[in-house]
Amino acid sequence: MWWTEDIWLNKKNAGGEERLMFYAGIDAGSNATKTVVFGDEGILASHIIKTGLGGEEQALRCLADTCAKAGISREQVVCVYGTGYGREYLKFPQSHRSELMCHGVGVHWLLPEVRTIIDIGGQDSKGIRLDDRGEVENFNMNDKCAAGTGRFLETMAHALQISLEDIGNYALLASKPVRVSSTCTVFAESEVISHVAKGENREEILLGICQSIVDRVSGIVRSIGVKPPVAMTGGVALNRAVVKLMGDRLGCPILLPPDPQITGALGAALMARRHVTAGQDL
Predict the structure, then answer these.
(1) pLDDT tens digit sequence for 2-58
(2) Which domains does the chain show, CATH number per domain?
(3) In contact, 28 and 87? CB cutoff 8 Å
(4) Could you tell me if residue 251 is left (phi over 0), alpha (psi between -120 and 50 degrees) or otherwise beta?
(5) pTM: predicted TM-score of the whole model, two decimal places
(6) Angle at the Cα of 16 (from 15 to 20), degrees rounded to 5?
(7) How far apart are the C-alpha atoms of 255 and 47, rounded to whole Å?
(8) Which of 33, 51, 246, 252 counts the highest number of beta carbons within 10 A?
(9) What are the E-state strand segments in 106-238?
């Protein structure tokens, strides 16, 4: 497995026998809820579901599904940490930690050489710079506007009647972008509809949409001082066009974790483990 670590600590039960310890992290995002269950062999299982209107109920369901994937019971999870956009609404985790911290911890465990993280989620975009220990030394986030986020892409996909997953693939077929200049999601949607009405090529419009995200987010990242290697996390990291364009803009390749959507939940699980096994809070 690619998820391993050098040092593992077990607790003993009342009879003196060692028992396996399991930890979980929950990233309650605006669009998706992600859960990671972590054990002696690293990541045992992860799961992603739509957040919807469920809140705590959806988070509990996501955790239960992840435990089922891991082949363990919910009762075997000794500590749960929460993070993400909706973390404060979750009552059952033992503690909550910021998305910035959790993405830093998660990415550092997977890709310890990374020094800059670009996280593009459903509602916000973040640039995070890490030190050699994987701790956050600088960061910046977008404002409350949804431009440059997963929500922006969802709106554009709906306007063009294309699946969200296909945007990046079709965009890479274009030779040049049709410029989408509006920074507001509502105005950008009207601009895209206008391009369609004029008969502009769909692939070129999609490339322009991806370029507009890069234009916005690259400014956020540059403001913290880009230090390579650079990794991208969040659902938008699954968009091949955005990843390529971001690398071109920053002048360096963009690394991707094996599953870029779960790094926040992984970081939360690692912090829960640190709390239990070492008696430390991060």
Answers:
(1) 333 332 333 444 444 456 789 999 999 888 999 999 997 899 999 999 987 767 889
(2) 11-102+262-277 (3.30.420.40), 114-256 (3.30.420.40)
(3) yes
(4) left
(5) 0.88
(6) 100
(7) 22
(8) 33
(9) 116-120, 125-130, 136-141, 230-233
Task: Check residue 242 and give its pLDDT.
Answer: 96
In this prediction, residue 146 carries a pLDDT of 67
CA distance 270 to 39: 10
Q: Evaluate whether 238 touches 165 at the Cβ level (below 8 Å).
A: yes
CA atoms of 223 and 139, how far apart (whole Å): 8
The tokens 């895209």 sit on which residue? 192
Cα-Cα-Cα-Cα dihedral sign, residues 193, 194, 196, 201: negative
Q: Report which DSSP code applies to 53.
A: T
Give me the half-sphere count of Cα atoms (radius 13 Å) on the Cβ side of residue 236: 32
Q: Are 213 and 177 in contact (CB under 8 A)?
A: no
d(CA 154, CA 239): 12
Which value, in Å, is the radius of gyration of the alpha carbons in the chain?
Answer: 20
How many angstroms separate the CA atoms of 137 and 115, rounded? 10
Low-confidence stretches of the chain (pLDDT beneath 70): 1-19, 54, 143-147, 279-282
Is the C-alpha dihedral spanning 50, 116, 106, 110 positive or negative? Answer: positive
